[in-house]
Design brief:
Chain lengths: 313, 241
Amino acid sequence: MSQIQVQAPGLLTTVQDLGREGFGLMGVSASGAADPIALRLGNRLVGNADGTAGLEMTLLGGTFLLPQGAVVALAGSDFTANLDGVPVELWTSVKISPGQKLSLGHTRSGSRCYLCVQGGVAVDPFLGSASTHVLSRLGGFEGRALRKGDVLNTGPAGGPFRKRKLAQWAREALAPRKILRVTPGPQTGWFPASSQQLFYTCTYRVAEESNRMGLRLEGPPIPARSGGEMITEGVSLGAIQVPDGGLPIILFVEQQTTGGYPKIANVISADLPSVGQLRPRDEVRFELVGWDAARGLLREQEELLASKELILG
Amino acid sequence: MELRYDFANMSAPTTEGARFQPASDQSLLIYFGQRITLEAHQHVMRLLRLLEAEPVDGIRNLHPAYCSLLIKFDALKLGHGDVEAILRHYLDRLEAVRLPEPRQVKIPVCYGGECGPDLNDVAALLAMTPSQVIELHTSATYEVYFLGFVPGFAYLGELPPALVTPRLATPRRRVPAGSVGIAGSQTGVYPVATPGGWRLLGRTPIQMFRANRSAMSLLSIGDRVRFTPVTQAQFAALEEA
């Protein structure tokens, strides 16, 4: 067991694993890593199981002191990391000596970077998961984002250090998309053809007030037909709901579990990790695909992630 | 027109009207009608109970609501057609499902003042006195239709018709935890501080959701709830306890 001392927390750094599925009855959404593919690969690079808890950083990374040293990997977006001033490569396992300091800066690409450490970040699980649910202050480290001075423990580290690297072809194949593929939403029929045409042809911009609960989009409003009375119902991850003003919101990992606004579309499962890498002011477009195509794309993605040539070393 | 309901046999309602609707590539909605009725809600609860008693491999989460259930599944194992086919068999057996006696839960509420900043406005809007609003709100027994929105938020209904009020035109940025609000014909308690557009009549000192309690959520689907008025002093005493 070793420690991670937080010298600077970054903008919003939380403990995340792959979330807690199965508690919708209590109104608890799954939470979990915003870019689960990055977390899974980061874990593999340090020899952890895919679902091991790591630190999710947002837009601006933190500074961490590792008094006992550790084996770590950074995955996801490039947050210009350095180890005692020496640049640290993304998607690569790194051995940190006792007392070394890992510092991350502003993102140079997407919204999130994961710090995965051999043995994982150890917190008491809540409903079987280490994931922080920021809004309801549950799970993770005291149910909140990390602060300066926090000290986290890591789990028992297994095995000696091995240099591992994500293959270049995999980085390209798994790069976040800016054109999100979607399937129809349960209330697609509530939107006149003109609204649907706008939705699929226009470029939207991610609004500043976006977070793990939802991404607000700015662009042409797409009003639903008036007079429809929507009864609150369960909402799925990646649902694109359209409130009265006509500006869409993508419901994300800390989503409300039920909602009363019509949904025009739903981001396909394979593209949800890309949503986790969208930054405020990023531009995004939507492309409609069918149900079978959506499932096929998810299967392809999982096949790629199961490939033996994915990680070198 | 096809006759959907046999009125002589309403205690064993038919589920022929159940409608399936894909919501995403990994979720399926099942609707029992398009109106909020206790009958539709009974179907939701029976299906839930059956799915809890006999879980389906590959079904990962259930999100019940007034007259619908959202079923999240593992899209690598199942498709919408598979899930629908499995659920049709469950639907055939719904009538035999027995629901447990509802639990009765009393929630103490300090009405008005700082605890209930909208009480006076609601009274004015409905042309009554604040005490009439309190009397009406505490007179009814509410059904927990489902928990949703955030952990532990119970959607309770129905409000006495005289209390039906639209939600605030501009939602508050922060509603304190424990706030008791009304919106349309619903009422509910905010378990944690969140933004919210319901009109706030009062506040309860009871914690609606606690991670370190064996039953984390005070309320569960199907419970019956009554609100009981307490004074500011009682509120403070209960809050400390």
